[in-house]
Specification:
51% of the residues lie in helices and 18% in strands. The chain has 250 residues and is of the alpha+beta class. A five-stranded mixed sheet has the order 2-4-5-7-6. A two-stranded antiparallel ribbon has the order 1-3. The longest helix is centred in the first third of the chain and has 54 residues. The N and C termini lie far apart (64 Å). Bound molecules: adenosine-5'-triphosphate and magnesium ion. Adenosine-5'-triphosphate binds next to helix 5 and helix 6.
């Protein structure tokens, strides 16, 4: 073989690898986007069902409120889909000031139906108002995944009165800290090393894909933050999101 032939073979192999890499990337993104659309979609369905009920009872202000929630959740879904469209352009992310407490409220709203159905009490404790720089929708996605896991974790708790999820928002050493605590069984020792691995799940098929924490940790890392987990002395798990935030309220 001549040098020329070798060079051309190398070049075409390189091209194929680049194409294969792009396809693999697209596959990952598609799995991720599909995963992230589930929760807002379920929320839209619940808001729509509620709107119908309120309509039947002639409670128009509640109908209006639920329609507004549908509109908000659809906009949220649109932005998640836009992430897939723009996946080639990494820099296309919308960077803005994100109010952490507001984002927590928005995430909780999309899980309202699950919380209600399971009888889970949620407490939001904003110890210090704090803002971070980032993408509102992505920050919301992280919180939805963590809250969803917390709700799933308390499912096995025997007494409804003991099903609790607590969100704490505070400012600590230049960071916004969001703690999501649950009163579930905690993270088993054998699960802890695999928490953030894609497709690692202990949930029955159809219930969990094992993508929530993998997606969340990559979003948090892209925002120069950290996502970690530990068990609480009183039982249950705590997931902690740390994001750079220069000063309280800034
Ligand atoms: N709050 C928690 N308490 C106890 N275990 C948890 C908690 N959150 C996550 N885990 C464990 O980590 C695993 C991985 O979580 P992850 O969110 O990545 O996937 P999943 O919830 O199983 O599925 P998906 O998020 O794709 O619906 C879970 O299956 C569960 O075993
Ligand atoms: Mg999950």
């Amino acid at each position: 073989v001549t040098l020329q032939q070798t060079e051309s073979l190398l070049r075409s192999t390189q091209n194929e690898l680049v194409q294969a890499g792009k396809l693999a990337m697209l596959g990952q993104m598609a799995a991720g986007v599909t995963h992230e659309l589930n929760q807002p979609l379920a929320a839209i369905r619940a808001f729509a069902d509620n709107a119908v009920q309120f309509m039947r009872r002639g409670q128009l202000p509640q109908v209006e409120e639920n329609l507004e929630h549908i509109s908000g959740a659809s906009a949220h879904m649109g932005k998640i889909i836009a992430q897939l469209k723009g996946f080639a352009r990494k820099s296309g992310d919308a960077i803005a000031v994100v109010d952490v407490a507001q984002t927590v409220e928005a995430a909780v709203l999309l899980l309202r139906n699950e919380l209600h159905q399971q009888g889970v009490a949620i407490e939001i404790d904003v110890r210090s108002p704090v803002q971070v720089m980032g993408d509102v929708v992505r920050t919301e996605q992280v919180l939805i995944n963590l809250l969803r896991n917390a709700i799933d974790a308390v499912e096995t708790v025997e007494y409804v009165a003991d099903k609790r999820v607590t969100v704490i928002v505070e400012h600590d050493a230049g960071e916004a800290v969001i703690r999501i605590r649950d009163s579930g069984p905690g993270i088993p020792d054998e699960v802890a090393p695999h928490l953030f691995e894609p497709f690692f799940t202990t949930k029955p098929s159809g219930k969990g894909l094992g993508l929530g924490l993998a997606i969340s940790s990559s979003i948090v890392q892209a925002m120069n933050g950290r996502l970690s987990a530990h068990n609480l002395p009183e039982g249950g798990a705590e997931f902690t999101v740390r994001l750079p935030a220069p000063a309280p309220g800034l």
